[in-house]
Amino acid sequence: MEPTYHTTVTKVKGTKQFDFDDTLIREIKLEILLNGTRLGAVMCTPVDQEALAVGYLMSEGIINSVGDITQMTLLDDGMRIEITAEADSQKIERLDSEAVVISGCGKSMTANIDPAQIDAKVMQDDYQISASLLSEQMAAFYTQCPLYEETGCVHTAKLYIGEDQDYIAEDIAQHNTIDKVIGKALLDSAELSRAFLMVSGRLSSEMVAKAVMHQIPILASRTASTCLGLQIAEKFGLTLVGFVRGKGMNLYRHPERIKV
After folding, report:
1. pTM of the full predicted structure?
2. Hey, which residues are catalytic here?
3. Which residues constitute the domain of residue 97?
């Protein structure tokens, strides 16, 4: 299934009205089945569904590593994914009992954010990057997202590992882009603890929690952090950076990883 849809719309420009060929992003409901059981469904863009499923299941702690997956099959024109893997049954039960519906996602424990309940380690690494590198990568990031350029209707995420290794994901939902980009990196055996993550949207609690769960030390955006996002970053040692525009940025918490 193509991720875009072409249609004719009526465009108004000043006092003129005319037909215009436009490109829209497709939105599908991706059903996720694990070991024969339906876990739920994610509203998403039909691209990189395997990476999305892997990132989502690992973000929720249902599977611990890519090595736990023995089979993964995309079916029904990309609208259903079946996975066979070693899974944490207690996390699945918690998902059923505590999950809430959030924008773009059928079930998620990371949406029920309580910093005291996040099952993650405090990051105490010595990873550092320069402010100039972050600014350069953020500027380049917005030229590397073809679906955004074509439709203007998706969020984006980029995980930078090194000069010759980075991953990009696009989706209608920001949390899906994070799961996708992390899933891509994990399927490629990338080291997330020496990387930084850039997102197009706000630094809300669930975005920050996903970075913390995967022990990614730096999370950055062109926009702002919420209060709860900041509190989670502070508790778990995450460097949280907002308003990365031009040569400026706001270092909300743990600025020691950013060299000026």
Report:
1. 0.85
2. 105
3. 28-111
